[in-house]
Structure formats: C-alpha cells, structure tokens
Amino acid sequence: FYPKDDTPGCTKEACNFRDHWHLFEKHGIHVLGISKDGENSHSKFIKKYELPFILLTDKEPCPVATSYESYGMKKFMGREYMGMMRHTFVIDTEGKIEIIYRKVKADSMANQILKDLSLD
Fold it and tell me: Of 5, 89, 93, 120, which one has the fewest beta carbons inside 10 Å?
C-alpha cells in the first residue's frame, strides 16, 4: 500500500521495486501496488517510470486497505486527515501473511524484502 502515484516517496519506492524486479521475477514473486489513485493515474505512473508490476485502485473508503489496517488517520504539518499508509505485506502462495512492514523505507523496501527472504 502506498499513498499516491508520482510523489517523491512513492516514486522512490516504486523505482526500488522496478530496479530489483529481475530478482522478484526470478523467484516467482508477484509485486502489487495499491493506492487510492485511479486507472489513468496508475497508467501514467507506470509509463513514466517503466514499472513492470501491477498497480491496483482502492477507492475511498478504501475497503482493501482498511482490512489490512493500511488506511486511517494521518498527520501532516499539524493537519489530520484520512489516508493510505505506506505498508508492505509479504503473502505466501496460500494467502497467509508472512511478513508485515509497517515502517517502510521507501528507497530500500525491495532490498529489505529480498534480504529477509534470503534472496538478495
């Protein structure tokens, strides 16, 4: 889950996954990104950064993100608002959540997953 297409943090994270795509693909790992952005925004983001993975839309009230506790109250510059959290989940082939990352470093999330799965 990520907040918004083509923003600095989200772009760093998406490009980090793109740059390590060959390793995810080699090990049969599917990568999905989910935000509130619509199909048009996703298409532009994918094209601009040559992203090889699927981006999904979870429109407000964001039922998918909510079920993963990845949508809720956020604070920015003293303002509170409902928004998508930057969280990453590793899910096995049976649909079981194996690892949850609630504190994501946008520029190294792909590296961290590969390391934690001993695939780097």
Answer: 93
Preceding peptide of 63 cis, ω within 30°: no
Q: Which two tokens stand for residue 26?
A: 């080699």
Active site residue ranges: 10
Q: How far is CA 98 from CA 7, 30, 38, 94, in A?
A: 28, 14, 28, 10
Alpha-carbon gap, residue 53 to 66, rounded angstroms: 22
Q: What is the pLDDT of residues 58-68, one digit of tens each?
A: 999 999 999 99
Give pLDDT tens digits for 28-85.
999 999 999 999 999 999 999 999 999 999 999 999 999 999 999 999 899 999 999 9
Helices and strands (DSSP H and E) totals, the chain:
5, 6
Residues 34 and 55: beta-carbon distance below 8 Å: yes
